[in-house]
Write a structure and sequence with these properties.
The protein has 311 residues and is α/β, with parallel strands linked by helices. The chain is 36% helix and 23% strand. The chain has ten helices and 13 strands. The strands form two sheets. A nine-stranded mixed β-sheet has the order 5-4-1-8-9-10-11-12-13, with helices on both faces. Helix 1 packs across helix 9 and helix 9 (260-272) packs antiparallel against helix 10 (278-292).
Amino acid sequence: MTHIAIIGECMIELNGAPFGTMTQTYGGDSLNTAVYLARCAGDNVAVKYVSALGVDAISDGMIERWQHEGVNTELVLRDTTRQPGLYLIQLDGQGERTFLYWRNRSAARYMLQHQDFAKVEAVLVKVDMVYLSGISLAILPQQDRLRLIELLGQLSQQGVEIVFDSNYRPALWCDADETRECYRQLLEITDLALVTNDDEHALWGDSDEEVTLARLQAVGVKKAVVKMGAKGNYYQDFTTGFRQKISTTPVEQVVDTTSAGDSFNAGFLAGYLQDKDPEQCSHQGHQLAGIVIQHKGAIIPKQATDAISFA
């Protein structure tokens, strides 16, 4: 069995119209990937989530649900002074979303300062892969970001594969220069980068996917996936020079694009961690994302994905 640790934050999600009907659930880019990966990879991949929550009833309920989804929560720290963050999703007529966040004092923001984080570090040395996103970095205080990148560098030297989804959210950073410098440091030790063309254009000014791939190669990334939505994705292995463009079938009725990239990552990694070829991994990612965006919310009902198995 392959073991992956996914680092990040999960928040309480409110989904609906302000001053109207609201649905309460939970979500967060890294947790979304963890749940969908646990659902579709079966017993071949053990998924551990690394984060921090409070000791309140909502935190208890979140952990119980994650365990029910098959996500290992032994590395979710409990903070007696803080609670989960919260976000609100608002959708337009085309299913595109905007977010409002309340997360500055969330438990996950301070997970590296938790007295038990050393126990997390001891476990991370033993996993096969560590996955994180740009949001996983953005929520942390600056010194904690540097500490996390240093830790990941040490893990990489010990043979742990590092996977990074750049997932750029400008509102979480002081400015773009800060983001670019932080990303450069992490990309230097990244084995597999999972990026989106829109984010790369917004942060780096990349004019197309060729520019993105060239930049990732120059900084030291070993393999990369550039996600292009309905246009499919590129895959490139810089160590061998192999490159492939993989197409997808666009979804006719998009309900909510929340978690589209997160679920693609889960489907792709479900194949990657089982040594499937890049085309098959990509098709798995597109298939899973295509189902997810036909439902509301970051994590859709389990019965909607029960028919998918990438084991």
